[in-house]
Prior knowledge:
Elements: E1 4-6, E2 12-14, E3 18-19, H1 26-39, E4 43-45, H2 53-66, E5 75-80, H3 89-100, E6 105-110, H4 125-141, E7 145-151, H5 155-164, E8 171-175, H6 183-192, E9 195-199, H7 211-220, H8 224-233, H9 246-252, H10 262-269
Parallel strand pairs: 3-4, 4-5, 5-6, 6-7, 7-8, 8-9
Antiparallel strand pairs: 1-2
Adenosine-2'-5'-diphosphate binds at residues 19, 200-205, 208, 223, 225, 241-245, 248, 251-252.
Amino acid sequence: SSHSVALNTGLQMPLLGLGTYKLCGPADVYQAVDAALAAGYRSFDSAAVYRNEADLGKALRELLPKHGLTREDVFITSKLGPKDQGVRAMDGALHSLSQLDLEYIDLYLVHWPGTQGLQVADDRNPGNRAQSWASLEELHGQGKLRAIGVSNYTPAHLRALMQSCKVPPAVLQVEFHPRLCQPELRSLCKEFGVCFQAYSSLGKGELLTDPVILEVAKNCKRTPAQILLRWAVQQGVPVLPKSSNPERILRNAEVFHFALSDPDMDRLSALDCGQRFCWDPSEVA
Ligand code: A2P
């Protein structure tokens, strides 16, 4: 469909998903998932480190029937935490499956190139990543992880993975917004057939007051968040806006109701200055 992208596994991934970072506690998760399903979201992005996998799994089991949906109608992403990188990766991924209480996860990502407890420059980091990837490949072969991928990898991390993997990553999920356009990673992903996915499209909320974004929003009669999300999806980049507010969850899903003009797209892209609102992975060996 026009609202999803084909991964290199053949699986379709929705262009819009609900980010769940900082959604915590069964009531918050339930309310957000309920609002998201009502607004048409069919993708949910969790992670072991968010500590909400169990709440998300439970909310979905209760809410899918309410919305007339089944497991096959939704796309669930989770991620291997940095403490489980390396020898613990198999157990870490199985723990995600048991927390979510799902038979399979649609997409499972290595969350971060480093290992918790190691210095960023430690030369054991690459070996741990390779070991994590081998475990994800094995679970992918068993059908427990329908697609596997990575998050926060730099061009160097991604090139090394492409050279050593048996199964190539389906997705690279990184920080992406008009101030951080990631041209090198995007062209590498294109070259390698990896789907480039955005997180923090709103710059942790800080881009919502950028004067250029505000002006484009005013001219288009849209909210600043809708402008930022539309700018990404119009380039075919899937987004994962997080909100715990039902009204904002609904509004953020209206990205498919309008288009930005080419000059407005270019104006936003011209804001690229390499600014990060999240951690920079470039020092990780
Ligand atoms: P809230 O949960 O109260 O809506 P990012 O995805 O870049 O990390 O940004 C997420 C932050 O942006 C959250 O703090 C969220 O807060 C806020 N947010 C999400 N959607 C909107 C919106 N449409 N308008 C304003 N703030 C938003």
